[in-house]
């Protein structure tokens, strides 16, 4: 073994961001292919992609560790601009409700991604007001809301304008968000517009020194600070297999499905979740879920039997083997008061809009731990 190889084998941390190196799990911080340990500098795959491709690939972190990192923002004496990016399709599941407690008085710019999933006739001003109201109800004070589509490259010029408007000289930019919300795309766009990153990153180490923050230098001497994607087990997308993830996460505009239901009828969303219309006058419900997810209607009094006999087959995804990997279902009984316009939200799966204001009693069945709630209608 050469002296150079011996020296590299003694390196246990990324020379770019300081993360502890590991060769087993590509999705976790610090991953480096074993065959690249002899290269110089010894940097994790994430730093390699930033340096060579301007690609700030996302990594994930458990909730407690993420919040510990986030507390550094509020504890810092220097004010920073916090950009919180959320997934419109999974808004209440991807919003970091405890954000304000950890970032203190630092201004928060809320960026809502995946607006391309909604109908083109959507009233965007009304949607912005809805987002502001929901954020406030979650205890987050936002200085502004920007609607974007990373996939369609929509709204980014507005975002850059807002960053320029709210970021004071000398401020760092923290970017925070849950997994699968489009954070990497946002980071990469900010890099292109605010940093001469190729010159900076090919001549020196990355400035980040903590376990899982990457500090990307800006032209003015400050930094874009990329935080790991936070993992929320309350999102169905964190529980399903990668194969089934494609079935429940929409990648094209939603085609809402309207069902006229009598009380005592049930809708199955594959074998992922179930909606029971328990009581109320005949009315319509609109389902905003992935177009690839099969919705099956049946009578409530035979729903249990149908599920037992056909889950994983007629009721799929997931298939029968993968169903055993999901937590058992939990019932959530929700009463929709008269005169209200409500959505029934299942984190990671979508939502069901209650179209009538006549009131209803419904039950949602979803894997244990998945967030289920009633909220004011988004659309």
UniProtKB/TrEMBL annotation:
Pfam families: MMR_HSR1, YqeH-like_C. PROSITE patterns: G_CP (PS51721). Signal peptide: none annotated. Residues 67-233 form the CP-type G domain. InterPro entries: G_CP_dom, GTP-bd, GTP-bd_ribosome_bgen_YqeH, Mito_lipid_metab_GTPase, NOA1/YqeH-like_C, P-loop_NTPase. GO terms for molecular function: GTP binding. This is Ribosome biogenesis GTPase YqeH. It comes from Paenibacillus selenitireducens.
